[in-house]
Specification:
Elements (H helix, E strand, L loop, with lengths): L3 H8 L1 H5 L3 H21 L6 H29 L6 H34 L4 H22 L2 H15 L5
Helix pairs in contact: 1-5, 3-6, 4-5, 5-6, 5-7
Length: 164
């Protein structure tokens, strides 16, 4: 249904329609990049206990995003005037699901490698900065969804004859 590069392109499709795309870029890319550079400069090494917390938290978000995709499939069946908004929100949700699975996979790998190997400090710093970037990118990207979902549900409840 979706290719990985298609998901990446569809995540950026709302960027083309925004009136202030620099805010979108700053929120989703610049702030996470600054946080990961700060983690590198501060010699931050993520602890395996933090990874144990990241894995279920992101897994929970992936489950909730899967529910939002299913919810959006319900609204896309109707003749909704905001079909473009529904498609964009579904694409953002699918991008976040794939990103969340990547974060969980990297966290599981980092958890098991941190239990075995503690000698590679440079690799641990780079890994920690990568996890900081991915987590902050993920959490800032997830902020794009609530307002979109609210507008979709509100518009469909106004046009639906079932909701009086």
């Amino acid at each position: 249904m979706y290719s990985l590069f298609g998901i990446w392109e569809e995540f950026h499709s709302p960027l083309k329609q925004e009136t202030a795309p620099y805010k979108f870029r700053a929120l989703v890319y610049v702030i996470p990049l600054l946080l990961s550079i700060g983690a590198l400069l501060a010699n931050f090494i993520i602890d395996y206990n933090a990874l144990r917390l990241i894995i279920p938290a992101i897994s929970l978000f992936v489950g909730l995003l899967t529910n939002s995709v299913i919810l959006l499939l319900r609204y896309s069946d109707t003749n909704n005037p905001s079909e473009n908004l529904i498609d964009q929100t579904r694409n953002i949700s699918i991008y976040l699901i794939v990103s969340g699975i990547l974060i969980v996979a990297l966290s599981i790998g980092g958890y098991f490698s941190s239990l075995v190997i503690d000698d590679f400090v440079l690799i641990a710093k780079i890994y920690s900065a990568t996890i900081v970037f991915l987590l902050s990118h993920y959490l800032f990207s997830i902020l794009l969804l609530p307002a979109r979902l609210f507008v979709i549900i509100e518009n469909s409840s106004k046009t639906s004859p079932d909701c009086d």
